[in-house]
Amino acid sequence: MNIKIKILLSVMIVPLSALVVPLGGHSENSKTESMAVQETAIFTGISAENFVIEQPVSINFEIDNAIEEMNYEMTEIETITDKKEWFIAYKSIIEEYSYIIDPPETIYDYFTEEELDLLFRVVQAEVGDEYSFESKVNVANVIFNRFYHERFPDTLSDILVHDQFSPIADGRYKEVEVTEDTILACEYAFTMDDTTDGCLFFDSNNTLNYQFVFNDSAHNFYKYREEK
Questions:
Q1: Which candidate, 222, 32, 224, 82, places its Cα nearest to that of 142?
Q2: What's the Cα-to-Cα distance from 153 to each of 26, 138, 163, 190, rounded to whole Å?
Q3: Is the pLDDT of residue 136 over 80?
Q4: How far apart are CA 210 and CA 189, in angstroms?
Q5: What is the pTM of this model?
Q6: Please, how many CA atoms are within 13 Å of residue 189, restricted to the half-sphere of its CB?
């Protein structure tokens, strides 16, 4: 998978005190965060004079083995080419090993329930279930790109307004039934790669006067013209 945030796939044979597993996260400049091991091994000095351990050494082999197993499972899922299937498998691994890592932050750490409900409904109404998971990810990424862009408000509530998104203007967002597919797409867009390369606009009728970037069969995507 061509994911900007790469999972550390190699088996790590290092002291646990130095172990950090890079995983996805969302920030203004780059979607990067890290998962740190919650328990660390304690290593103490060795006397050069008599070559004896000055203090007891505590090594948690169970944690060490769990880290190795987690890395192996992360390696295994890299063969999955479907973004949705890969993300489901990824989340399962993160949950399985949550007792030894600090999971990367998600949309549930950043936004209120009201904001997320509005986000899910807008993405659901804009894309619908007749289009792909990737199309939903693209729309969600545009919303998150606006969230971090200096020309747009810095809250989802202020970004998701009627003069910017037609489902809000015509009330369609109130009528949709949000599916798990849509929720997963929003989670993926926030946690993983920006599939739009920084796009800030989309439409379905090619009427926007911005720099066209690509079409995903559901929408056309654009940037400001001065942004290359």
A1: 222
A2: 17, 20, 14, 17
A3: yes
A4: 22
A5: 0.75
A6: 29
